[in-house]
Amino acid sequence: MRVWAKDLHNFTERCISTAGASPDHAKIVADILVAADLRGVHSHGVNRLEMYVGELLHGEVNGKVTPTIINETDSIACINGNNGLGMVVGKFCMELAIKKAKSQGVGWVVARGSNHYGIAGYYAMMASEQNMMGLSFTNTSPLVNPTRSAKPALGTNPISLAAPTTSSDPFVLDMATSAVAVGKVEVHDRKESPVPLGWGCDKSGNLTTEPKEILNGGGLMPLGGAELTGGYKGYGLGMMVEILCGILSGSNFGLDIPPWRKGKRSNANLGQCFIAVNPELFAPGFGDRMASLIEQMHSLPTVHRVKLKCSWLGSQRKGLRRNMKRMELNYMPILSTH
Questions:
Q1: DSSP 3-state assignment of 192?
Q2: Pick from 276, 300, 282, 294: nearest CA to 170
Q3: Which bin fits 20, alpha (ψ -120 to 50), beta or left (φ > 0)?
Q4: Block means of pLDDT (10 residues each) for the chain, length 338 residues?
Q5: Could you tell me where the DSSP H helices lie in the chain?
């Protein structure tokens, strides 16, 4: 289904506002959800709208509160999201981190009392747009089985880094520390097709290719899959994110985080981490070196004559800079509940 991005944005903004968010906060949510769709990350775009609206209607999230600073120095800060919308908390925190980095070289901000904030890359790119490196992390509801565990205990705990270059596009890493997003398992479930071995496990912790076994009492595998294929490394990365977000901020962590689903639940109290760095204070010419590194990767010989890409697609980036009236996208509903 083809829709105009502006229409999708307006629809999303109206839904969030009608559900109880302030107009300014509804706009932030719409900005980030539509940005995800424009990048082709539909699992974190407007497909999630029902979940955010449900949280507001059930009183699980406060759509009108603003984050507050608990304590801070010139270069760091700890924020209370006050159970507000995760996108509002994330934007507030990265803006503060960027402000601190401009004067101190580095800005490091953590938040507790937050909620799901959409794509991690959005916040990292806020920094790269101002010629800084940006990093963003969040913990999430338990969906991933740690290595050798028969029970999910960590979230997909994404990692994002955006680095500016003197070429047209920044380098952007935005990835989960699980082997795959749960939405991909759901797609296979609807198609009644098996998933690749290493994506998930059943309720006993054994690897399975059956989507229903993963979704109904099972869990996702860490990045790398089984222990034999390096899954313990993904487990370690997930733990790193949990430490940076949950432990450092004083939020919920691990098994304390309630599942994100339809219906009434306790406050998520997610932890998040945002870092902005001025790279030019380390060694001049960062952007040129980044452009050179990316060009090295792009010029490597490839398999099956497929062009190698390691940076965010320029066509997507240019599209975001166009007037919203002119943007159109192919919208594919996923209807994920995780």
A1: coil
A2: 294
A3: left
A4: 88 97 98 92 87 94 98 98 98 98 97 97 97 98 97 97 92 95 85 96 97 96 96 98 98 93 74 98 96 92 73 48 51 49
A5: 5-18, 23-38, 49-57, 86-104, 121-128, 182-191, 211-215, 231-242, 248-249, 286-298, 314-321
**Cα torsion angle, 111, 113, 117, 120, sign:** positive
Amino acid at 159: I
pTM: 0.91
Q: Considering only CA atoms, which of 59, 53, 51 is closest in space to residue 13?
A: 53
Residue 277 structure tokens = 């760095």
pLDDT of residue 316: 47
Q: Which of these, 177, 157, 173, 162, lies nearest to 244 by C-alpha position? A: 157
CB atoms within 10 A of CB 84: 25
Tokens of 301: 């010989």
Quickly tell me which residue has 């009434």 as its tokens. Answer: 264
Burial class, 73, CB count within 10 angstroms (exposed 0-12 / middle 13-18 / buried 19+): exposed
Which residues are CB-neighbours of 64 under 8 A, at least 6 positions away? 20, 21, 22, 25, 84
Q: Which residues of 207-238 are buried (b: 16+ CB within 10 A; e: fewer)?
A: bbebbebbbeebbbbbbbbbeeeebbebbebb
Walk across the sheet containing 133-138 and list its strands: 68-72, 76-80, 106-114, 270-277, 133-138, 159-163, 171-175
